[in-house]
Amino acid sequence: MRLALFQPDIPQNCGALLRLCACLGLEADIIEPCGFILGDRRLKRAGLDYLQDVRWQRHNSWDAYEAERKSRLILLTTAAEQPYWQFRFRPEDTLMVGRESAGVPETVHRAADARLVIPMRRGLRSLNVAQAAAIVVGEALRQTGGYASLEEPS
């Protein structure tokens, strides 16, 4: 399973998401341009020493990412109607979160194989992308048996 970050704006969120990937055994894709330099100290601070333990790939653009993509793209978006827990995940899926400031453009929405939402109370706009990814990644790993491949906690 993979986690794709579309043009992340906030280095702390990017670092937290890469740390999530390291801890849960997901690979990551970062689709540029980012709103910060990937070597940013805030990214490193949020990712701590876990960044060395995640396998990630940097893509210069959406078009470059899309040309290389080989898996089903599952977009997490407030514009979706299907709740994430009603979806049947596969181990080879890529879950994508959008930019903190603007989500993803319509071209990405159209390219997604599925669009999922985390239902929230009325009047509230969205969760932090790292929180949203953690919620859905947890369900995806549960459904696909992905936790079974992780080592026992120490």
Distance between the termini: 23 Å
Strand content: 15-25%
Strand order of the largest sheet: 3-2-1-6-4-7-5
What is the makeup of the main sheet? Answer: 7 strands, parallel
Give the low-pLDDT segments.
none
Beta strands, count: 7
SSE string: EHEHEHEEEHEH
Task: Please describe what this structure looks like.
By secondary structure, the protein is α/β, with parallel strands linked by helices. Helices cover 32% and strands 18% of the residues. It has 5 helices and 7 strands; from the N terminus they run βαβαβαβββαβα. It has a 7-stranded parallel beta sheet with strand order 3-2-1-6-4-7-5. Helix 1 (11-24) runs parallel beside helix 2 (41-47) and helix 1 packs parallel to helix 5 (129-144). The longest helix is centred in the C-terminal third of the chain and has 16 residues, at 129-144. It starts with a strand and ends in a 10-residue tail after the last helix.
